[in-house]
Amino acid sequence: MRAYLLLLAAHMACGCGAQHAGDGDDQSQATVTDGAVTLHFGADYSVTQSGPIYAGSTLRVIYDSGRMPTCRGEQYGQPAWQVTGLYRVNGGQTLEFLAAGYVPAEPYPEIVVHEVGDLELWFRNDNRWGCEAWDSDFGKNFHFEIKPSPGAPSWMGNAFSVISRETCGESFCDQDRVPLDNGLRFGTWERERATIAAVFFEVYKQGATDRDNPDLWKQLDVQLHSRFDGAATFESRYIDIDQRVGDNARYAFGVRDLDPFAATGSALTDKKQCPSFPLRVSSDGQYVEADFEFYMTVNGAELRPSGQPVYRGVFADYLSKYQVCVTL
Fold first, then answer.
1. Domains of the chain
2. Is 109:60 a contact under the CB 8 Å cutoff?
3. How far apart are CA 92 and CA 144, in angstroms?
4. pTM of the predicted model, to two decimals?
């Protein structure tokens, strides 16, 4: 799975109110007690790490503003400069967060790392007058090891969907497999005609999945995390095992169980009946569509698509049922 980091909160306190770490001596020794791993970049150019970083860990970055005092200045009594943190995992996509200077008030920036490997981190300081400086361990950047989550499976992948009218014996037909990286669509034909509509993926953990194991459900905590466009948080539910495939355990969940349009019969007549998530009209003007995103976890380790933060799907239904929801 390609490296990906999800930015949860990317701001620190501004100079016009609460101070961030490093603006006062009493804050430079800030501690964290909520389970997050702290990376503290001190004003004396020290770098300290509060504990091991595991895949799925939340990292809180404390950057003392006195560490790189090159590009500074004030305007209207407020800092006119910023320190921006940049980071990537295993050479993947570079993301940013605001670490110090004039930024909205939040305690500390947090990032979540999702993949085992190398976390690379560096900082850029600039101001409104064009000054620019770098804090990058003399161009090498700062590197931190991301370890496998305790209890994580040895491998997970081979995620695919099957939405088809045909079956082969008591299961799906192999030719109907669609890699989950390609996305998922569930519309009116699928809702009315499909005999099988499910997502599958496989998990391997030595000593657990490679044998007939009646206690597997106790040893592997397998969950789906999903939300519709516009939702702030993911909803979670457990995923059942489908069957063993060689040394792997294959898990599956039904697409119909997630279908937001399943219960709609006649056309809606009042906007109060409309879904809470956004609807858009399809390009041909015949349907409404709702975007959906999801990922899976096994003992806290995350299964996400290659090069993307989440798997994506679209649910669709007839526009005539939801005309009141998309009419201004």
1. 5-147 (no CATH), 155-326 (2.70.50)
2. yes
3. 15
4. 0.66
